Amino acid sequence: MSPAHQAGSEGGHPTVDQAADPLSDCTAEIVRLTGLRVQSGNRARLESHVHARLQRLGLHRPEELLQRLRPGSDSAAEERRLLAELLTTGETFFMRDRGQMQLLQGHLLPRLIEERRGERRLAIWSSACSTGEETYSLAILLHALLPDRHDWDLRLIGSDVNASALERARAGVYGEWSLRGSDAAFRQRHFTRHGWQWRLREPIRRMARFTRQDLLQADLVAADPNLSGLDLILCRNFLIYLAPPAVAAVVERLTACLRDGGLLLFGHAELGAHRPAGLRAEMYPQSVVYRKAPPLPSHPASLAPSPSSGRSSGPRSGRSPGQSSSRHPMHAPTGTRDQSRSRPASAAPSRLPPSGPLQPVSGRTRTAQPREPLQSAWVDANAGRHARALQTCRRLVEREPTQAEAHLLIGLVALELGRNHEARAALRKAIYLEPDSIAAHVHLEALQRQSAEPLAARRTRARLRQLLSHLPPDSPVPLLGDTRVLDLQARLSQFDAEPCPTT
Ligand SMILES: C[S@@+](CC[C@H](N)C(=O)[O-])C[C@H]1O[C@@H](n2cnc3c(N)ncnc32)[C@H](O)[C@@H]1O
């Protein structure tokens, strides 16, 4: 029997008028007030929660609970926290998303370290970190990359809304599930074994500190002044739980916590069609990364500089052009190009994959000597020179319309520019030409999900699952950097479990 029925049948307890289904209205209002999406699969849990809260608080109608959630109410933060714990999961593990971790290790963190070497100050925030695996993964990378870290003011903050998750994070003791996919050498190096559990070695554990933060609250910096002027923020696998207006609000809040030039990293395709203001997208094979752009007087809000503005303003980096990133090259997985059964092209030559060692995205890109137009388009896209990237790709497809990868890149750039129609058309073309292109399906699925087309998104996921079933679970997904097949499969299941947003 559902708690709704129980509540209605017991004298003195809150009663819900089932006929009028006040919970339906209540659900919409909860979404509006919190920003959290209520998936159809979560409705029963929400119903139980509302009834349990009413009982506990001695209230009678769901509206009274809503009252407690309204801005200005003293109880709003507490009710929001309880709902967040109910409607999101704490699923996480060490080195989650190998591609992003490799990008952090091989490129982003070394670049930030170089940029900050003068001041010897580095501030990194793993927001919505759950039980801390993500935060400690960063600690492990920094431990190796910054041997003189004791001479640095190194701030590595993990935060979550869930206090008990944070307690577990502070303890730094983990089970097998948190270490899935990690090999024996990794475990030996960073943990000591205690029965079935793994305890983080102290030097790593001490690098991070944890604090409770609600990303849905209005002013994060006011809540914790340590969250300002940050160099890097990770916000992965949290935005998927939010309704679009809340995604925009959280991204804006996080952006406010970054210094100019600071970086923001989300889970793949979590922003979907949302185009964040004040951030420039840098497209790496492993992931899109967002960089906070200082305001440009001539192109204040432009994400699409003209080719000349791209050259003149250039991507911003504290590094001088002579400082090459070659010390930390990105190592692309081999065989990342989608080569499987393309439609017959007009003898299309095998192009360089975008996941080859791309030239870096900062000012030094200008000195790069791309060898092929398609690679040059990827480099331009990386550096935020979207117009030029598009121009190159369009020329390519004019000459050779069956260039699936060029259509894919047009799709990605169009997505970044918020041109969803164009993105959709280009991704569809890429799929038509390469029906087995996993990368194109992944981005189309994200677009469909964000455009509230749950059935289409579900169909695309089914197709993706089919494509992935032919690949070894531990292999990298073609054209998605080092994202492994099993990571992508897990992600698809996550979306499947939450199929149809009610709003
Ligand atoms: C799936 S976990 C993500 C963990 C980690 N970032 C990762 O990608 O592996 C989502 C986390 O978001 C947290 N969360 C939910 N609502 C939140 C909020 N309003 N503010 C901060 N964290 C929140 C949950 O408690 C949960 O730990």
TrEMBL record:
Disordered as annotated region, ranges: 1-21, 292-380
Spans of repeat TPR: 404-437
Keyword set includes Transcription: no
Bias (Low complexity): 299-327
InterPro entries on file: Bact_Chemotaxis_MeTrfase (IPR050903), CheR_C (IPR022642), CheR_MeTrfase (IPR000780), SAM-dependent_MTases_sf (IPR029063), TPR-like_helical_dom_sf (IPR011990), TPR_rpt (IPR019734)
Any single GO BP term: methylation
Annotated protein name in UniProt: CheR-type methyltransferase domain-containing protein
